[in-house]
Amino acid sequence: MDNKIKRLKEKGVVLTIQRMAVLEVLNNSSNHPTVEKIHKKLLRKYPTLSLATVYNTLQVLRQAGEIQELNIGREKRFDPSIDPHHHFYCRGCERIIDLEISCPIAQKGSIDGHKIESVQAIFFGTCADCLKKGKDNA
Amino acid sequence: MDNKIKRLKEKGVVLTIQRMAVLEVLNNSSNHPTVEKIHKKLLRKYPTLSLATVYNTLQVLRQAGEIQELNIGREKRFDPSIDPHHHFYCRGCERIIDLEISCPIAQKGSIDGHKIESVQAIFFGTCADCLKKGKDNA
DNA sequence: ATTCCTGATTATAATTTTTATTAGGTTAAA
DNA sequence: TTTAACCTAATAAAAATTATAATCAGGAAT
Asked: For chain D, which bases have at least one atom within 7 A of a protein Cβ?
């Protein structure tokens, strides 16, 4: 968290109360929240904080490379971790689980002459918990 | 194409004119079109075909496992190929390029006890063409 | 301290994307 | 041919995101 703030300052990002608050909520969450979820949580502490600010802030943070934006399902989701890792989406409980793996192809830096900057892999399936509960409707 | 139709019939999917038309457009496209693009193209031949039908059909085809739905950017995009392959999204020209690779982890069928059914990997970066043109604003 | 400037925030409107509804039409089976 | 099931079109509604304009906050210069 402190490192992120330091890097943001170095990049010339103005660190307002609102931006710090968004960053904090994201850092303390492990469930890849949607914009709506982040906003709802913040409203408890900052009742006037607008949804637009959350959108703006998330964009600023992403452009600064301090958070990740995930395209899973209809809504965008956000991940405070920028370490190379991937995600498992369970069709049963709809959870998004972090996977501590990194893509061997991405590490090469390029493929077919295209320069790779990042990768986002989503594994779809049924998680261990749902398998146990027999929610595997295959 | 013929195989797809055969499999759809076997699965009990009613093959209407509209559904065939959507499937055909998708099969003849290599640029991973959005719902809007598919609809626009179809309107030329079928002026009354509604957007809702395109949405419905794409959902039917996806649930039947005959097409792939891609979450890249804001709009959903569709891919007629269900063979294991992945995608490269160029930040320069915004093209989506097919990558003829398959994920070694997905082939194992499971990870951390979670059952894998499919994977969707998106590599972000700058494509070979844009690199040449110096569009690599890194 | 006051004014000015820049950029952030708020509130709201507008747009875009997706899903739901409903009435009418088609299709396929009995 | 009649019935039941399902599909389509048109429309409305909902959900998600972006744009706009007014306001506000913090520094820099006066």
From this structure: 6-12, 15-20
